[in-house]
Amino acid sequence: MKCVILLLLGMALHSSSAATHSLRYVYTATSGIPDFPDFVTVGLVNGEPISYYDSIIRRETPRQDWMAKTEGSDYWESQTQVSIGAEQSFKANIDIAKQRFNQTGGVHISQRMYGCEWNDETGATGGYFQDGYDGEDFIAFDLKTKTWIAPKPQAVITKHKWDSNIGQTEQQKNYLTQECIEWLKKYLDYGKSTLMRTVRPSVSLLQKTPSSPVTCHATGFYPSGVMVFWQKDGQDHHEDVEHGETLQNDDGTFQKSTHLTVTPEEWKKTQYQCVVQVTGIKEDIITVLTESEIKTNWNASNFVLIAVVVALLVIVAVAVAVAVGVVIWKKKSKKGFVPASTSDTDSENSGKGAQKI
């Protein structure tokens, strides 16, 4: 079972993002979706899945070889029990939320994302804990004030309940600032050969037709932290630029594209270049937009071939129209002149497929 998870990607430069690592857990409970688990949990380190549980298999399982090798059966059994308990809580939470929003049937989704970040150069840490319902924010923990934020009126009851539980609030802060960081460092050490590696991307400039946007496509890089942007005459260029999402490849590396809408006349007289910056790789990867750098299936022979095909189709269409016209003319010439019908009955029955408007 595949679970799609949207993760926030910090758009920072190498100096500030190269040493930032994260541990996060995503819980998803669903209601009204057939043939789909009612509850799913995924643990991630630096965006890479390390553990998985759902309400069908009902056991916590490793998603990395190094996790399976370093953690024994006791660990996976304890995590299974934690996920089973969370499953029961989340099923109850959906029922409570449906009551508060005056909902009965239909599809509903409750999600939770919590975790921490650590910069191994500066030592700075951060933590977060937030719940969502049906795709919108429901409640979140403010680590600085140790209070809960309720953007929805339906969440105010929960906010007052959790704010009043001082012991739970202190435990929450301790986990996000201490315990979570300790586990993150432990996992990074377990999987350092995978998680701490850097892979340089392959960068290509792609274009469908001469009038299509030029795409700068970076693929095969690791880790996922990346910036792909255009420059014009050495300055960052944002006009007519569309940024795509960072996607994961089958081999665990990542890809990302950025599209520039510009005419051939413009980029031939002005220097445009695509700049790719990847976390952990100090030097920028720069590709200058030139005709020789663009990869495309479009060329002059394509245009000539299409023009010939279109011309042949027009000739065939004209020939068919002429032939049909001759046949109709011959039939009419044999019957003589037939006046148009003026009765209501004839006009209604003349074409059952055509209705009056």
UniProtKB/TrEMBL annotation:
Q: Where is this region: Disordered?
A: 337-357
The record ties this protein, via CDD domains, to:
IgC1_MHC_I_alpha3
* Pfam families associated with the record: C1-set, MHC_I
User: Signal sequence span per UniProt?
Assistant: 1-18
**Which GO cellular component terms, listed alphabetically, does the Swiss-Prot or TrEMBL entry include?**
external side of plasma membrane; extracellular space
PROSITE patterns from the entry? IG_LIKE
Positions of the Ig-like domain? 201-287
One of the GO biological process terms: immune response
- Extent of Polar residues compositional bias: 340-357
Q: Which residues cross the membrane?
A: 303-329
Instruction: Please give the Gene3D superfamilies that the UniProt record associates with this protein.
Output: Immunoglobulins, MHC class I-like antigen recognition-like
Q: Recite the UniProt keywords alphabetically.
A: Glycoprotein, Membrane, Signal, Transmembrane, Transmembrane helix
Its family remark reads:
Belongs to the MHC class I family.
Query: What is this protein identified as?
Result: MHC class I antigen
Q: Which organism is it from?
A: Salvelinus alpinus (Arctic char)
